[in-house]
Design brief:
Elements lengths: L17 H28 L2 H11 L3 E6 L2 E7 L9 E3 L2 E5 L3 H7 L3 H14 L5 H16 L7 H5 L15 H9 L9
Parallel strand pairs: 2-4
Antiparallel strand pairs: 1-2, 3-4
């Protein structure tokens, strides 16, 4: 009456239409390129990329395209700042070295620096510089390190940029108080 045999049913997946798959790829590629064009235009208009290029020329950097609208300024020779890389507008400067050398230690450093290029656009260009300085000062007061609690570095992902996160211990406040000769007193 009842059979105990089971029957296997093989399902064959439908092939996706090649045109649709191609259009989806083209659409995502176009939107990605469009966003980089937008960042490039914004940072040129707000003069931050112009400042970055002036710094690169002053630092006798070797310039090359970095993709995604970024300009790489390698072998930057001016003494400040002392970082593996820093960004001004859409220009990523590499003091004394190259992107390839830095990526050996920090593979995602260009992603970190690209985030800073977006931050220049969001801050309307040059206002980013004093805002970054304030964020670095606050970070130093909180952690004893200019990057660990810096809102811009945290948003760009500290570890991608090669930073080590320090705990918030108010180390800078303590150092400043000691330098000023201020002491805490316990009130009972």
């Amino acid at each position: 009456m009842f059979s105990t045999r089971t029957r296997r049913v093989q399902t064959i997946p439908r092939a996706a239409k090649p045109e649709k798959r191609h259009n989806e790829v083209m659409s995502s590629t176009f939107s990605l390129q469009l966003s980089h064009v937008l960042r490039t235009v914004l940072n040129a208009a707000n003069l931050s990329t112009v400042l970055g290029l002036l710094l690169a020329v002053a630092g006798r950097s070797h310039l090359r395209g970095g993709g995604n609208g970024l300009v790489l300024a390698e072998h930057y020779l001016l003494p400040l700042p002392q970082r593996g890389a820093f960004t001004v507008g859409n220009v990523v400067l590499f003091p004394g070295g190259t992107l390839d050398e830095l990526q050996q230690r920090y593979p995602e450093v260009l992603t970190h620096e690209a985030a800073h290029a977006w931050q220049y656009a969001a801050c309307l260009g040059l206002p980013f510089l004093p805002l970054y300085a304030l964020a670095s000062g606050w970070s130093w007061l909180r952690t004893g390190d200019p990057a660990s609690a810096n809102v811009f570095e945290r948003a760009a992902n500290l570890t991608r940029g090669g930073y080590v996160e320090h705990p918030r211990t108010n180390a800078g406040f303590a150092q400043a108080a000691a330098a000023l000769g201020l002491r805490r007193t316990n009130r009972g």
